């Protein structure tokens, strides 16, 4: 099992190009129009409630936008989302799970040959 979907590499390449363009355009705009970009980012922070934090200082995190670290983080998250989706008739996503013992593993590790794998999710709240 463990083999990626046939089109996954093409999708990953597309996401890589999207994120790269996003970061490059954002960096250029941040250099050319720093006040406007700052206002837009702060407006997004208002929507999420981030700016209501008393320890919040936009000077600490706005410079991290469009950095190399930002690029790799966004790319990693977007690639992970590709693997967490499935198509009708396709393989189930190989999501990380935690056993009752606390050991971390992936769903595909429970598969044995051609036997069907049944996942039962529940909650005790």
From TrEMBL:
Coiled-coil positions: none
Membrane topology recorded in Swiss-Prot or TrEMBL: Single-pass type III membrane protein
GO cellular component: basolateral plasma membrane
Keyword Cell wall biogenesis/degradation: no
Catalytic function, reaction form: 3'-iodothyronamine + iodide + A + H(+) = 3',5'-diiodothyronamine + AH2; 3,3',5'-triiodo-L-thyronine sulfate + iodide + A + H(+) = L-thyroxine sulfate + AH2; 3,3'-diiodo-L-thyronine sulfate + iodide + A + H(+) = 3,3',5'-triiodo-L-thyronine sulfate + AH2; 3-iodo-L-thyronine + iodide + A + H(+) = 3,3'-diiodo-L-thyronine + AH2
Family from the record: Belongs to the iodothyronine deiodinase family.
This protein's name: Iodothyronine deiodinase
Provenance organism: Homo sapiens
